[in-house]
Amino acid sequence: MTRSKTGNMKSMLPMNPALNILAVSGSLRKGSSTTLLLQALQHLAPENLQLEIWENLDTLPHFNPDLDREGEMNVQAVQDWREKVQKADGVLICTPEYAAGLPGSFKNALDWLVGSGDMADKPVAAVAASPYPTSAEHAHTSLMLTLGMLEARVPAENQLKIGLLSKKLNAQAEITDPELNTELQRVLSALQQTILQAQPV
Ligand SMILES: Cc1cc2nc3c(=O)[nH]c(=O)nc-3n(C[C@H](O)[C@H](O)[C@H](O)COP(=O)(O)O)c2cc1C
């Protein structure tokens, strides 16, 4: 290794590049609390985790296997979604619960990834949140079943169910509940670990 004039070898070491995290909200709503939660996570994330919030959920067509034959996919929105997932070091999902399950439009987005295999082995953090005390249990269960089918890497430390979200997050995307703050930092750190463990040495 070359030494700098000051003899500081540390300054000669290459910096670890920031990890690129695709942050996906399961809600289409303009005033979505789940998207606000992703913004709060953007503020909480350490410098080396760059969260990009994906905003094109509503551009995807209804999943139809007829459009998804090998080598024939020419729907631009689907290609873009798959490429975003493929290029991300990790994916951070925050979803609400609707009618005791995942929002249909978000499940639709996940369905488009079944045939492409872009989620296979992808480090993922899965957060389900509800304004009610029930903690979006059903959405979480459904999400985990689908992520299992997609063969994503979602260890238990990367998962979180949140109840009473509206009492723990303000309109400025600040977490007002210290316990939730700690849990979200734990999820971010666990996602980072999953990515580092998945990368070849
Ligand atoms: C039709 C409908 C069904 C809902 N079903 C559930 C449900 O089963 N469980 C739950 O926890 N919340 C349920 N909710 C509440 C939503 O999850 C809540 O409004 C949430 O804030 C929506 O997410 P968003 O703020 O990110 O858009 C439902 C809301 C609506 C309008």
TrEMBL record:
Record Gene3D superfamilies: 3.40.50.360
Say which domain of life the source belongs to.
Answer: Bacteria
**Taking every annotated instance into account, which residue ranges of this chain make up the domain NADPH-dependent FMN reductase-like?**
20-162
Q: What is this protein called?
A: FMN reductase
The lineage is: Bacteria, Thermotogati, Deinococcota, Deinococci, Deinococcales
